[in-house]
């Protein structure tokens, strides 16, 4: 048999989504604008050519702008580190050849950075889909193991359409030869 028919791997994007690159960049540039305006109001030197920041008094406006600029800079730095570390990224591998399911994710730096869970394929009882409608709708695929333990298989912040989640869940249930619940 082909390896394609025996091994199935789903990539989980994690923090390296386009929206995270966009927002980290926007917050970084905005924070620099606030920070430079605050510094410029303190020093009286025109740092940004398109802003007349010498006209802004340092206390309280310039000080507050420096504070917001610093907070924004720290937030964007944190966001860029999350993107660099790819927190939450990884894969789900279903291997009928070896009889195992492997869930791999990258975490925060430290001794537990690599989250690598391996389960025996025989312990998988069902694939369950949970649909929560509302303002912050969630569509999650869970793998239920013996002992009623459920492991989420979809990434956080990875909104899938109803059609995509149905297709992925049914393909996975067929591949694993287990029941599909929740649809």
TrEMBL record:
Membrane topology: Multi-pass membrane protein
InterPro entries: PSI_Ycf4_assembly
Subcellular location: Plastid thylakoid membrane; Plastid, Chloroplast thylakoid membrane
Transmembrane keyword on record: yes
Keywords on record: Chloroplast, Membrane, Photosynthesis, Plastid, Thylakoid, Transmembrane, Transmembrane helix
Pfam families referenced in this protein's UniProt entry, alphabetically: Ycf4
GO BP annotations, alphabetical order: photosynthesis
Main location: plastid
Transmembrane domains' residue ranges: 21-45, 65-87
UniProt superkingdom: Eukaryota
Cellular compartments per GO CC: chloroplast thylakoid membrane; photosystem I
Keyword Plastid in annotation: yes
Function: Seems to be required for the assembly of the photosystem I complex.
HAMAP family, alphabetized: Ycf4
Family membership: Belongs to the Ycf4 family.
Classification via NCBIfam families: PRK02542.1
Protein name per UniProt: Photosystem I assembly protein Ycf4
């Amino acid at each position: 048999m082909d390896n394609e028919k025996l091994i199935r791997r789903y990539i989980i994007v994690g923090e390296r989504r386009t929206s995270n690159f966009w927002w980290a960049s926007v917050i970084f540039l905005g924070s620099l604008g606030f920070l430079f305006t605050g510094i410029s109001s303190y020093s009286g030197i025109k740092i940004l050519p398109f802003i007349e920041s010498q006209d802004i008094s340092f206390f309280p406006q310039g000080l507050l702008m420096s504070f917001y600029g610093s907070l924004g800079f720290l937030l964007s730095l944190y966001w860029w580190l999350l993107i660099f570390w790819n927190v939450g990224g990884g894969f789900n591998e279903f291997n009928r050849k070896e009889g195992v399911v492997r869930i791999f994710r990258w975490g925060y730096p430290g001794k537990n950075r690599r989250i690598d869970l391996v389960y025996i394929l025989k312990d998988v009882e069902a694939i369950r889909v949970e649909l929560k409608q509302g303002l912050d709708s969630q569509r999650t695929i869970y793998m239920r193991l013996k002992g009623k333990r459920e492991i989420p298989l979809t990434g956080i912040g990875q909104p899938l359409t109803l059609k995509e989640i149905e297709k992925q869940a049914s393909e996975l249930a067929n591949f694993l030869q287990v029941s599909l619940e929740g649809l």
